């Protein structure tokens, strides 16, 4: 019985993987596959937020920054690939056909460099920021505000550098994805499958992470940081690791977002986009395994369906989701399942282990 | 000197505007520990009050002075409503208050977008603010001077109120030791509410000042909230002196950065500056000693 309950999340991931990788491509139309791919990218970032915020107690309100780093790294490579070797990207020719390619674009011609950058860029940025903040014990709301400020700053910076980054119009019109023609149905399916597979990998990574000693320490740091410190651990390192992992996941989500959606603009990475990512995690259940991913998919779906058909109403709904979920269901919809499980357990008189999901974050 | 003076004066005015925006936050965030992300939308509400007042009283000479107390009351009541409906249930969960008020901010933005024209509304500045004064050869616009005077007046009034009035005493008592204040007969719940009313009301005053300087539209709150929070973070919570210095420093620094580089890079640099500053003083410029481990 115990063995079964510990394996349960793994079985869940398996079912989820089959649904995403086998059932969805067989059932859904091309349009919905591309939409689902977009939700998968948002879900990848959300899984990271669940780790940093739900498990680590760090409210990361600027994940758009890391999403943006990955997305722009990928978009720059795809733009250069589309332009062809030695040529300038289309939007740059519009401004000045004779201007040289900005120096920071040049390495993105290389496929290997791009892939490495998608992982390393967020590691560097989040490690520097996280080290600076966590070592000085900046936490709680201060941390949240600073991460959000970073997202605003990056979005403003990109929208103001039209010549170098495409500005508010962003980067779009990609034709090739690492040698594959993007406008081909089979290739689109392949890109979707990569995104879905990456989501499954991220879920597995977080599942393994939560079971490890480090995952225990992370939850302990969230609930009683001082006590963890007194026990001889450095909470700063624990938090830093979770923050960096979350940043890398956001970056991977951003990188896959680009070939699937076909455009990246500063709006996708700014303050409101970052808040949208948080909304999904809060709705699904920040500390649970599946909550963040499913919540992000739900919000993504709402954004692309309701958000375009009934934009005024969608914002109100989004605002109300924030208020009601946070007020009445701080651990998200997934806590309903846990409560139901708790009820069943109590009726069968079998004391269950206290799960980290159920602990209320009260400080 | 000729090159340094204009950014210095413009920066002081920007700092004063940030100070007005942050002053209410020091009260709600600093004194009460509530992170109200809808504070920016209260600023927006104040700006729209200035616009509506102008529609009723066409003479802007009269309407702007009238809008100041009106905006204070309107934003104050919005804050009170927020406290009673949402925040009072979450005093023990500060991070969650932040998120719930993000939801409130979204709703208020959308409401403003539907009530007022999407491109924003014009607010006429009164004729007595049309002009410049000559400061060492630089023509300093009077509306910038007005912002500074308004900010100084608000700071002085708030400081005096907190220090000398019996109500201010009760607020400080509640902040320092809520339980003891309660046993001494301070009605801490009504203290909370009035603190929140005044803090939000100050956002309304800031909104009137902002409407005279920048645009009045549904997105204006977003512009002010993050710099205002950075000011509070850098200034140290609960200290008006820290907020004043931090606001002026951030305002002047941003204006200088903008002169040397560009407006957008200035925002990035200001952010980096605050993070570096927090390395030196993680608790901000001035801090109240509390009994909490931090």
UniProtKB/TrEMBL annotation, chain A:
A GO CC term assigned to this protein in UniProt: plasma membrane
Transmembrane segments: 36-53, 60-80, 112-134, 189-209, 240-264, 276-301, 313-337
Record keywords, A-Z: Cell membrane, Membrane, Transmembrane, Transmembrane helix
Keyword Membrane attached: yes
Localization per record: Cell membrane
The keyword Transferase is assigned to this record: no
Cited Pfam families: BPD_transp_2
A GO molecular function held by the record: branched-chain amino acid transmembrane transporter activity
Superkingdom of the organism of origin: Bacteria
Topology of the protein relative to the lipid bilayer: Multi-pass membrane protein
Descriptive protein name: Urea ABC transporter permease subunit UrtC
Gene: urtC
UniProtKB/TrEMBL annotation, chain B:
InterPro entries cross-referenced by the UniProt entry: ABC_transp_permease, ABC_UrtB_bac, BCAA_transport_permease
Subcellular location(s) per record: Cell membrane
Segments traversing the membrane: 12-30, 66-86, 98-120, 140-162, 194-213, 225-250, 257-280
Domain of life: Bacteria
Keywords attached to this entry: Amino-acid transport, Cell membrane, Membrane, Transmembrane, Transmembrane helix, Transport
Topology of the protein relative to the lipid bilayer: Multi-pass membrane protein
Stated family: Belongs to the binding-protein-dependent transport system permease family. LivHM subfamily.
Protein name: Urea ABC transporter permease subunit UrtB
UniProt source species: Agromyces kandeliae
